[in-house]
Write a structure and sequence with these properties.
- The chain has helices at 2-16, 37-40, 54-66, 68-89, 135-201, 207-242, 246-251, 276-279, 281-301, 347-414, 419-453, 463-466; strands at 94-108, 113-130, 307-318, 330-339.
- The chain is elongated.
- The chain has 472 residues and is α+β, with helices and mostly antiparallel strands.
- It is built from twelve helices and four strands, in the order H-H-H-H-E-E-H-H-H-H-H-E-E-H-H-H.
- The protein has two domains: 19-91 and 133-305 and 347-466, Outer membrane efflux proteins (OEP), CATH 1.20.1600; 95-130 and 308-339, Outer membrane efflux proteins (OEP) (Single Sheet).
- The longest helix is centred in the last third of the chain and has 68 residues, at 347-414.
- Strands 1-2-3-4 form a four-stranded antiparallel beta sheet, with no helix packed on it.
- Strand 1 (94-108) and strand 2 form a beta hairpin.
Length: 472
């Protein structure tokens, strides 16, 4: 008996040590990480509202409401939550109602007579598995981490949808502005061409000057048609994003004012947050996968140890249905079952090795996700800073060429500037105006991508909020 107790104690102690350490690799942050308090406030749950555009807010809300990928991701979180509930229930006793009724007829040749027997049973059966080795607990924890992983993946999808919708919104406004610029320039040039025709008819200008103006009219017209085609294609792409007809999408956009942001007015953080690992949902998803794989290694190891379960029944048995539920017909039973592997030809060991391989792959995926995240943040910070400088330069250039064009217009009327000088200045101003809008869009797009690379408004220490699945 003493030896049996020692053996049982050894088994229990070894079983209790089955839990695996996820071994999440430590990640060193750059020396200059950390953003100011005011910039920290920009990384909130509704970061797109930092652009202070009510129409943009409605646009994002509509995109989130209509997107099927987000709906599927939400359903997956709900599905994995039910898997977790199943694993939780397996840790608790199970109670079942049992009942049976039978009629048996037998014939005895010695008496040359048949006999009929009725048997009725009614009761309850309880079963409970003793989780000595932590198999059920580790299975439940693995299910929890899988649910959290799906929740984080949903957050990543949500942030991508928000970013795409914000970029689409600014893109639609930019393309609308580009079309309006081309349309306005074409209308102005048509009027100026009519003026030049009168000048030519009066013999005040050369034919070559008139032909140059005609060339400029056609260039503006070509650009207007091209921008209209681009705008039409963009509206179609946005309609797919929102699940609406292009006419419905454009109905709310065409009255919007031009994007008011300049190179010095974009509300975007300029450095790496010190808690970037908690702010990236994809990193948290990869970490949850590592944790789940560690728990599953423990589950695989527990197969080496006996499975112990208790069971008991309480009920009634009688040959008369009318007297079934009475004290003299009550019955009960209680017992324990032990199931332990002896020979499985290496199946358990193979399962453990397979689980460890999954854990190693999850660790490698985590490391790769972290590297990719830091690379994205670095690239996004650089792209935003670079585009911001380009926009500032283009704004100064546009201001300078505008001033030059106005001076040349006055000088041309007074006869101090040639038509060619004015022609080139007007052509350059048009090209710079289009370039400025395009660079402004690239700057806005890089600002949005920077928000996404910094995790948007997500933060892992708020995971309880993020596991709440929104209503469909």
């Amino acid at each position: 008996m003493k030896h049996f107790a020692l053996a049982l104690s050894a088994i229990i102690i070894s079983g209790c040590s089955l839990s695996q350490n996820p071994n999440i690799p430590a990640t060193a942050l750059p020396q200059n990480s950390g953003i100011s308090g005011s910039e920290q406030q920009l990384l909130n749950d509704r970061w797109w509202e930092n652009f202070h555009d009510k129409e943009l807010n409605l646009f994002v809300q509509e995109a989130l409401h209509q997107n099927n990928d987000l709906k599927i991701a939400t359903l997956k979180v709900m599905q994995f939550r039910e898997f977790l509930n199943i694993k939780k229930s397996e840790q608790l006793p199970r109670l079942d109602v049992i009942g049976s009724a039978s009629k048996t007829k037998s014939y005895m040749a010695s008496f040359d007579q048949s006999f009929t027997f009725d048997q009725f049973e009614l009761g309850a059966m309880a079963t409970y598995e003793i989780d000595l080795w932590g198999k059920l607990k580790n299975t439940k924890m693995a299910a929890f981490e899988e649910m959290m992983r799906e929740s984080y993946l949903r957050e990543s999808i949500k942030q991508r949808i928000i970013a795409d919708s914000v970029i689409a919104y600014f893109g639609l406004k930019t393309n609308t502005k580009l079309y309006q610029v081309a349309q306005e320039k074409y209308a102005n040039e048509k009027a100026f061409y009519a003026y030049m025709q009168n000048q030519y008819n009066a013999g005040l200008i050369r034919e070559s000057d008139l032909l140059q103006e005609e060339s400029l009219v056609q260039m503006y017209y070509d650009e207007m048609v091209k921008q209209n085609n681009i705008l039409s294609a963009y509206k179609t792409a946005v309609s797919i994003l929102l699940g609406k007809a292009p006419a419905e999408v454009y109905a709310g956009i065409k009255k919007m004012q031009d994007t008011a942001y300049g190179s010095s007015s974009l509300p975007v953080p300029s450095n790496l947050p010190s808690d970037i690992l908690q702010r990236r949902a994809d990193i948290q998803a990869a970490e949850a996968k590592v944790k789940a794989s560690a728990f599953l290694v423990s589950v695989a190891k527990s197969a080496f140890f006996p499975s112990i379960s208790l069971s008991g029944t309480q009920g009634y048995a009688s040959s008369d249905l009318n007297r079934l539920v009475t004290s003299n017909t009550s019955t009960y039973s209680a017992g324990a079952n032990v199931l332990s592997p002896i020979l499985d030809f290496g199946k358990i060991q193979a399962n453990i090795k397979a689980a460890k391989i999954e854990q190693q792959m999850a660790l490698l995926e985590y490391q790769e996700t972290v590297r990719k995240a830091f690379g994205e943040v670095k690239d996004s910070l650089h792209a935003y800073a670079s585009n911001k400088e380009r926009l500032h330069s283009q704004e100064k250039r546009h201001h300078a060429i505008n001033q030059k064009k106005r001076i040349l217009e006055d000088q041309y009327k007074e006869g101090f500037a040639t038509h060619l000088e004015l022609f080139e200045a007007r052509k350059e101003e048009f090209e710079v105006a289009l370039s400025k809008e395009a660079i402004k869009f690239e700057t806005l797009k890089s600002a949005v991508e920077l928000y996404v690379s910094l995790g948007g408004g997500f933060k892992a220490d708020m995971k309880n909020n993020h596991t709440v699945v929104p209503k469909m």
